[in-house]
Amino acid sequence: MELRRTVKYESDRVKGFGREVMSVPGCEQLENCIQCGTCSGLCPLSIYMDHTPRQVMELTRSDFKDEVLQSTTIWLCASCYACTVECPKQIRITDIMYELKQRAIHEGFYPKRFPIPVLAQEFYKMSRKRGRVTENFLATILFLKTNILAAVGMWRLGLNLFIRGRFPLKLEGIKRKGELERMMAVVDKLSIDALNNGHQNGGEGGRNNGAH
Amino acid sequence: MKYSYFPGCSLKGTGRAYEESLLPVLKALGVELEELDDWNCCGATAYMAVDEVKACVMASRNLAIAEKAGHQELLAPCSACYLVLNKTKHYLHESPVVEAVVQKALRQGNLTYSGNTPVRHPLDVLVNNVGIDAIKKRVTRPLKGLKVAPYYGCQIVRPYATFDDQYNPMTMDRLLEAIGCTMVTYPLKTRCCGGSLTGTLPEPGLLCAYVLLKEAIARGAEVIATVCPLCQFNLDCYRDKMASKWGNETVPDPQNPAARVAVGPRLNMPVVFFTQLIGLAFGLSEKELGLNRGFTRMPKPPCAQPQPAAA
To answer: Which of A180, A196, A197 is nearest to A188 (CA)?
Structure first.
């Protein structure tokens, strides 16, 4: 039996983490959370989460960075926005989940081969390189990188899609790939943390490490 | 009426039946579409998990190209595209810092963004611009008595409810009633389908999708109508997995509240795009509407004649 300390110590806090998240555009309202739990009650996925959305809100605000970025909660959020529209304090919970996902990806806070961050990064790579995403190729890459056995189990779905003409054999792409790449390169050079009120950690490229 | 048309990646791939049915339906109603020149992926929600500002640049390139094309409005049929494009507009409006970065990036492609392109969903255009009456007039083969569960999903009504009610959207109900369908009461019409979790974490993802099918069965629906390629995919394509997991469950019999029926045999109801139903009512063929692409075929039109309580 593995035991874990369930009471948090002051020393577990990473001071400033909550502030940092709340300084991101769209995440400011977190400051006003009243811990009512409306988000947790509405969330169709909270039954699978280790911390409910309400707990993640408080843990974030209170600087428990490691606990938040290691939680299953941020990955289980399917961005259906049910919590966001019902929050009595207008906290954009879904957007905060995105912000936390970004931080977890860039700082490597997830188990190796965990499919959701791998999907996000492969999606990012394919859409940036080709300008469009071909879903069945993306899904194939995802399975090869995370769980080859599961890929084998998917052959029937692939075949069923193929015979219905829903499994293209050609990668989609835009014509002016160079134009898109030049646009993205502008953002590569910037750290948005630095743009936001001079608030930053890690400086240039701090947000882009995981993306390449 | 002329719109710029932003198909998005899914409508060229797994959700191509949506495009195949949307285009002839709009054409029949005199709505002209011009596919956006060299459009790119909207960024979708996966992108936001990596870098929000880059996601905004991706989406803004499309908005800027639409501005350049000169048509007033951009039509985005996929719910994720619709949300991402609208969300980007809000984000750029609220954050001058992000907007400055995006403008700088757009200049690399000789593009600018003014924020003036409305992003519209086909449901919105059909109900509010074309009008229910004009649609009724075009019906040649009403889908009399076909019991439909209208499934809107999340991202066209949340977080920005721009053209329909957030809690009980009715635009699709009204459209499908106008072509003869009978709408069943479907309280889960805006509940999450699981999104991309069906592919990444099947246990919770499939449960989300299954709950929607189960409810449709309990409500006596014969068909589920969707407005989003991902919703359609999740409800349509994983039913063998759902059947092996939950096939033995039972729900109250919609024809006899005292009895219960097994979910398994009814799990395979057709899951279609709302545009496919409209197309059928307009007399278009199944093939033209991509109805051969669903995992369960629609019953032959005229679909379901009012039936005595069988089953």
So the answer is: A180
* Residue B284 Rama label (left phi>0; alpha psi -120 to 50; beta): beta
Q: B57 to chain A: which residues are within 8 Å by CB?
A: 183-184, 186-187
Q: Please state, in angstroms and rounded to a whole number, the distance separating the CA atoms of residues B6 and B77.
A: 8
pLDDT value at B308 more than 60: no
Note which residues in 20-39 of chain A have CB less than 8 A from chain B: 25-26
**Predicted local distance difference test score (pLDDT) of residue A147:** 85
Helices (H), chain A: 17-22, 38-42, 53-61, 65-69, 73-76, 82-86, 93-106, 115-130, 135-146, 148-153, 155-163, 177-188, 192-195
Q: How many CB atoms lie within 10 A of CB B260?
A: 13
Dist CA A57 CA A78 (whole Å) = 17
A133–B41 C-beta distance less than 8 A: yes
Is the dihedral angle over the CA atoms B155, B80, B55, A96 positive or is it negative?
positive
The predicted model scores a pTM of: 0.92
Whether A50 and A72 have beta carbons less than 8 Å apart is answered as: yes
Q: Do A98 and B192 touch (CB under 8 A)?
A: no
Could you tell me if B81 and B8 are in contact, meaning their C-beta atoms sit under 8 angstroms apart? yes
Alpha-carbon Rg for chain B in angstroms: 20
- Under an 8 A CB cutoff, do B201 and A156 touch? no
Chain A CB contacts of B97 below 8 Å: 25, 192, 195-196
Q: How far apart are CA A153 and CA B209, in angstroms?
A: 19
- From the list B94, B201, B238, the residue facing A25 with the nearest CB is B94
- Please count the other Cβ atoms lying within 10 Å of the Cβ belonging to residue A4: 4
Judged by DSSP in three states, B161 sits in: coil
**Cross-chain Cβ contact B159/A85 below 8 Å:** yes
Segment A92-107 shows an average pLDDT of: 95
A30-83 pLDDT per residue, tens: 999 999 999 999 999 999 999 999 999 999 999 999 999 999 999 999 999 999
- CB of B156 within 8 Å of any CB in chain A? no
Residues of B within 8 A of A156 (CB-CB) are: 240
Does the CB of A98 have a partner CB in chain B at under 8 Å?
yes
C-beta atoms of B109 and A182 within 8 A: yes
Residue B294 half-sphere exposure toward CB, CA atoms < 13 A: 28
- Reading the block at residue B308, the tokens are 């005595």
- Angle B52-69/B96-107 helices, nearest 10 degrees? 60
Which domains, and CATH codes, for chain A?
11-106 (1.10.1060.10), 115-211 (no CATH)
What is the DSSP-derived secondary structure letter of residue A97?
H
Structural domains for chain B? 2-120 (1.20.1050.140), 139-293 (3.40.50.11810)
pLDDT at A193: 54
